[in-house]
Design a protein that fits this description.
Chain lengths: ~550, ~170
């Protein structure tokens, strides 16, 4: 059961015959059952130690008669220890059964790439057969949970356009083999559109800001597609800075202020430090759950974004992150729907920003589960943020972004919200607004909590206007450009209604023009009609 | 970009899409939707009013308070439904379908045909008995929220056919 995997002597990339059924790494059932196994082992060990101590302590067993079931269990175990032959037989049988089930699971899980789709079969009693068409593949990730890291294995996660449930996990493969599989899948899935798209992106960067598929394809990038793993490292986020940035969070600051306040009040009322100490000790449990929740949240954030590295592969941004659970996310540039940067109030003294993106197929749930990485820069200086943004979308100009990040007023082609919005938004009514370039629409809001969102015209899904009763009285309207689900929200609150109507009309026609161009650029639709949901059959 | 599949009604001026104005030939939904929603409301709440009234007679006159409040609630709901249904209007423009809703909280959503992923036509038994159906337009974003409730069934089906054809002709990648 521990036969060596194909990891030694990796074959040349092109000969990685993925069209035949492949097995996962033989250790994968063990790893998948890892947590359960550890729990069971831990329980057994504790029982064993307990019994050992009880045995040493002699008559102590009679001291604890109130728990009947526990007693029964102990007697059962005691019986087993008394009859070591029976015990070993039971243990061997259980181990054998587990081994058999694991072996069967391994035997029946296999994957291949055939007829333009990735197929994955698993299950032995309940069979499952999942297929993801290669053209639907949005991103391919490698993830290494802690247990896998210890054993040198990785899982390959294939993300597709159908949302969370349509992800396909190949868990687990040897680390080197996972890299090969990922590379091969990327080449298979990306050979057509990624290469084609790269040229569009370059033409984009080349000047007029409008994507143009003028057929001058086969640029220098076409050959670079296979080399997805290389790429130029753009930046690293030092863990020390990430640590400070993570600690600087609304919750921690409120909690710290609360603790300080409580301390001062206590000091003022009691006067003596000893009594203050007792007071704090008494008050601590009240804050406990809150502090604990916050700590879990912050540590989770730190673990997720630790060791952050961003690399540019020409057609995709490659992100490596994670302190314990090392992950690699590849975001093809042409799948990015909207980009945004945020500066929480607490980061202002440092001038730090966070950059996030909306990516088609990477659903965003508020829980921030690590399966869905949409942060391309957890914390960085404005220069870094601008560099990342222009890398993700070469058509963006750094000067525009800078004025969006820091500026206010109408300089630089900005249309501000109505002056009547002053009553609803006294701080930032002179800053909030939008600017239109040939390629995209930029929105900036917030004076204390600065936000910038950018959405290319070609990515607009739909447009919406909304007006509540207060806004109605002031004749204001909120305009939203709807993107695919993600952390970036492109909406402008409290525009004058005439401006809003005009923006709706103009943006609709700009989006139409941009779509027409991108449509003529690629002869076949990049994303097939979703009238056909991703195939997934359960043969039960 | 109009298509030769089935040109949308001409004469509509896309310049005049406004949140409240009536410059365009906005179409309203079937009045049967009002009936359906009112029936649902009454079916849910009248039993409680009746129970409270019975309790008021049998147990204590104080239950009249509850019955009165509930009756007022029903009346308010009915008024709301009447107002809201009449506020739903929609229009097919050459390149997008626009739906407006709400009175106090007014909203407008404009969905380009090229962005339509699929269209659901649904109708429950009550809606079917009144011959109406609701049309839901799905783009790649679940937040688009384009629903057009209460179209006559055959009109909903025709609309779906038209829009699907136009969507196919104007489809754009993500």
């Amino acid at each position: 059961m521990t036969e060596p995997d194909a990891t030694p002597a990796p074959p040349p990339r092109r000969e990685l015959a993925l069209h035949e059924w492949q097995h996962l790494h033989p250790l994968s059932p063990v790893l998948r059952g890892g947590l359960v196994g550890v729990a069971v082992l831990g329980y057994a060990a504790s029982q064993f130690v307990d019994d050992l101590f009880l045995g040493l302590g002699g008559g102590e067993r009679e001291r604890d008669p109130d728990d009947g079931t526990d007693q029964g269990l102990r007697e059962g175990l005691g019986f087993l220890f008394d009859h070591s032959l029976v015990a070993s037989a039971v243990v061997v049988a259980v181990l054998g059964l587990i081994g058999l089930v694991g072996w069967l699971t391994w035997r029946f899980s296999k994957f291949r790439v055939a007829d333009g789709q990735i197929e994955f079969r698993k299950g032995w009693l309940f069979r499952e057969h999942r297929q993801v068409p290669l053209e639907r593949v949005q991103a391919i990730e490698i993830s290494r949970p802690l247990l896998a890291q210890l054993t040198g294995l990785s899982q390959v996660i294939v993300q597709s356009a159908g949302g969370g449930d349509s992800h396909l996990k190949l868990a687990f493969l040897g680390a080197a083999r996972a890299d090969e599989v990922r590379r091969e899948l990327l080449v298979l899935a990306g050979r057509r559109d990624e290469a084609g798209r790269a040229d569009v992106g370059r033409a984009d960067a080349g000047g007029d800001g409008v994507p143009r598929g003028d057929g001058s394809a086969a640029g220098p990038l076409a050959g670079g597609v296979g080399d997805v793993d290389g790429g130029r490292e753009v930046l690293r986020v030092p863990n020390s800075r990430l640590f400070v940035a993570t600690i600087l969070h609304g919750g921690t600051i409120v909690l710290g202020a609360l603790a300080l306040l409580a301390g001062t009040i206590a000091l003022a009322t009691y006067g003596s430090s000893v009594r203050v100490l007792t007071g704090v000790v008494i008050a601590l449990p009240a804050l406990g759950p809150l502090a604990f929740g916050l700590a879990v949240n912050r540590v989770g954030e730190l673990l997720k974004h630790g060791n952050f590295r961003l690399a540019d592969t020409g057609t995709a941004a490659r992100i490596q992150h994670g302190l314990t659970d090392k992950r690699t996310t590849t975001i093809p540039l042409h799948r990015i729907q909207a980009v945004g940067m945020v500066q929480p109030m607490w980061w202002r003294p440092f001038g730090w920003w966070r950059v996030k993106v909306n990516v088609a197929g990477i659903a965003h749930d508020g829980t921030g589960s690590s399966d869905n990485e949409t942060t391309v820069l957890p914390v960085g200086t404005l220069e870094q943020a601008l560099a990342v943004l222009t890398l993700l979308d070469p058509a963006l100009s750094e000067a525009d972004l800078r004025s969006a990040a820091l500026g206010d007023g109408v300089d630089g082609g900005w249309t501000l919200v109505s002056e009547r919005a002053r009553r609803l938004d006294p701080l930032s009514w002179q800053r909030s607004g939008f600017a239109v370039s040939e390629h995209s629409l930029m929105v900036r809001t917030g004076r204390l909590w600065r936000r910038v969102s950018v959405m290319p015209h070609a990515r607009v899904q739909s447009l919406s206007l909304a007006q509540g009763p207060l806004e109605r009285r002031l004749d204001l309207v909120t305009v939203a450009l709807v993107s695919t689900p993600g952390p970036v929200d492109v909406s402008i609150h409290h525009l004058a209604s005439a401006t809003a109507t005009r923006l709706l009309r103009d943006e609709a026609s700009r989006a139409r023009a941009a779509r027409a161009i991108s449509r003529s650029a690629c002869t076949e639709p990049e994303v097939p009609s979703q009238l056909v949901p991703p195939a997934r059959t359960d043969e039960r | 970009m109009t298509t030769d599949v089935d040109p949308a009604p001409t004469g509509a001026d896309p310049d005049a899409v406004t949140l409240r104005g009536d410059e365009l030939p906005w179409r309203s939904v079937s009045p049967a939707l009002r009936t359906v929603r009112l029936i649902t409301l009454f079916a849910w709440l009248t039993p409680f009013v009746v129970v409270l009234a019975v309790l008021a007679v049998v147990v204590s006159p104080w239950f009249w308070v509850g019955a009165g409040v509930l009756a007022a609630l029903v009346a308010w709901g009915a008024w709301l439904i009447v107002r809201q249904v009449s506020a739903i209007t929609w229009i097919e423009l050459p390149d997008e379908i626009v739906i407006r809703k709400g009175r106090l909280f007014r909203s407008l959503v404009s969905i380009p045909y090229g962005r339509l992923q699929y269209i659901d036509v649904e109708s429950g038994p009550l809606m079917r008995s009144r011959g109406i159906a609701s049309c839901e337009f799905h783009t790649a974003s679940p937040e688009s929220g384009g629903t057009l409730p209460g179209l006559p069934t055959e009109e909903a089906e025709a609309l779906r056919g038209r829009l699907a054809a136009r969507g196919e002709a104007q489809r754009a990648g993500l």
